[in-house]
Every structure is written in C-alpha cells, then in structure tokens.
Amino acid sequence: MARVIPVVLLGATAGGKSEIALHLARSLAGEVVGADSRQIYRGLEVGTAAPSAKDRTVAPHHLASFLAPDEIYSAGRYAREAAPVLEEITSRGRTAIVVGGSGLYLRALLDGLFEGPERDPALRAALDERLRREGLDALRADLARVDPAALAAILPGDSVRVIRALEVHALTGRPITELRRERRRKGIAAHRFGIRWSRALLARRIVDRIRDQLADGFLDQARALLEAGYPPNAPGLHTLGYRELLAHLRGQYSLEAAVDTIALRTRQLAKRQETWFRTTGEVTWFDLEAAEQFPEVAKSIASAVER
User: Fold this and answer.
1) Fewest CB within 10 angstroms: 118, 143, 230, 295, which?
2) Do the Cβ atoms of 114 and 172 come closer than 8 Å?
C-alpha cells in the first residue's frame, strides 16, 4: 500500500479551517489532527472552537480537549505526540488532516524543532520572579547580550520564549540559536494548504463567531473554570477570550468591555498568525470571500492531493 501523505490546513483564527477540514475528511477518508495550542485544553471548547460532538461524528479527531487547564504543554511535546498519531492514521490507509493556526506547533511537527534541555524548575522560577520584579525589558536586555539572534526572532511581548532562551543559555552556556542549528529534529512531509481572508472580512467573521460563542455558553464555561478553583497562573485560564471573561466575572470590567477586548485581541492574533504564515514555504493558498466557498475549497484540495 502506498503511503498516504498527511494534509495540513493552516491559516488565521476564525478563517473556517475546521469547517473545510470536515468537508475534506469526507472526500479523503480523513481524520483530523489538531494543531492548536488552546484547543488542547478540556473545558475551553466553546471559546477555542474545539471540535464538537457533532464534528466527531463526521470524522475522528485527535489531540483536542485532552489536557487539564492547569497542565503545561509545549511545541516540542506536541511534535512528539502528534507524529505517532499521524503515522498510525496513515498506516491504516487513511488521510491525516492536520488543522490549526499555531505556527510553532506546525513548525515543530512539519519542519522539526530544536529539542533543548529539560526545564529546570528552580531556574525557571527565578526567571519568572525576575520578570515580575524587573519587567520583560530587563530580560530582553540580558538575552540581547548572550543571544541577539534569538531576541530578533521573538515578538516584543513574548515573555515565554525570552525566558526559555535565557534558560537554555544558563543550562548549556551556549545560545539557543546555535544549538537549534545542530539539533533540529527531522520533520514530516505533508501537503500544505492555507486559508486567507481580507482583513475586513476576517474581522467581521471574528465578531460573528464571538456572538455565536456567547450564545453557545462561552460565559458559562468561563464561570465553570472560575468555580473550579484553578490557580491564576494555570495556562488554560490565559487563553484568549477566557481571560477577558474571567476578568469580567471578577468584576474588573463589564461584559461589553470584555467582548470588545476579545474582538480586538483576536484581530491582533490573526494579524500575527498571518505574518507568521507568510514565512511558511510551499503553501498553496486559497483566498476566500464567503463561507459558501468551503465545499469548493475542500474539493480543490482533495483533487490536488489525489493527483
């Protein structure tokens, strides 16, 4: 039996990737593998647009809603866990359809990612404390001294990657960029397709999706997380949408202000994702103007894969 090459469907949030993937799964006897750093958490299904029970009747879904909100996850762990899932799906002659907007997860799986030293709890705690006391600019200044190339590739507000780069340097005595060149894990061959919208149309889709999510119980799910008593630093609680609704439930601002903030930050996220994916090579892009195009896009992808 010829090996079935996985299909990747990427693009900015709220672009309709999940809907297109379901159409595609029907055509290609496919199974969907999540590549979303937020959909991994249980109890956040509404706000992260994770696959529903109905979606799962159309096609099997993997690596979604499997982690507690207070558990830490990483792109490296995702790559290690997703690779055997893809292998198992393709071994059965079915098509693995990788769907997501988390660029780092996709890069880790498809192109390989540096496997650095394990986290050092004491060192990480010290760096977190410095971040709290001195601010991110002080840590960025330290990184500029020991690994300016790493700093240049990190977005201004990304404290997680700054801390990781400093941690690796402290543990190994070498820049993380240098180690990445030496130790990059081998990636996975895949057909890559992308979904794009104009900025104005995507902004409208974002607003519509938030409205639908609120109708589907978004606020109730945020309240359940609050009542569950997770610690404030639980990764799941910092998910876009939930952190704003949790702030509203704590009395920090009105529901209207929370919703407006979610919409703004989602647009900002989409812009960052678009910037990231512009640097992703060998992607066949589809520029959409309406959701009615989803079946036709899926048909075009299926035809390209079958050729």
Assistant:
1) 118
2) no
Q: What is the CA radius of gyration of the chain?
A: 20
Measured N-to-C along each axis, helices 136-146 and 159-172 cross at an angle, to the nearest 10 degrees, of: 40
The segment(s) of the chain belonging to CATH 1.10.20.140 are 121-183
Q: Two tokens at 84?
A: 């055997």
Please give the span between the terminal C-alpha atoms of the chain, in angstroms, as a whole number: 16
List beta partners, residue 61: 32
Angle at 99 between CA 199 and CA 45, to 5 degrees: 85
What span, in angstroms and rounded, lies between the C-alpha atoms of 104 and 192?
Answer: 15
Interval 131-180: pLDDT, tens: 999 999 999 999 999 999 989 888 778 898 899 999 999 999 989 888 87
Question: What are the backbone dihedrals phi and psi of residue 146, each rounded to the nearest 5 degrees, phi first?
Answer: -100, -25
Q: ∠ CA 266-272-273 to the nearest 5 degrees?
A: 90
Strand ranges (E), the chain: 7-11, 30-34, 61-62, 95-100, 191-197, 284-288
Burial track 197-216 (b if 16+ CB lie within 10 A, e otherwise): beeeebbebbbebbeebbee
Distances in Å between the alpha carbon of 222 and those of 56, 70, 239, 245, 277?
Answer: 23, 14, 11, 6, 30
> Distance between CA 193 and CA 10 in Å, rounded?
6
Q: What is the DSSP letter of 195?
A: E
pTM of structure: 0.82
| CATH 3.40.50.300 assigned to 7-113+186-306 | yes
Judged by phi (left if over 0) then psi (alpha if -120 to 50, else beta), residue 52 lies in beta
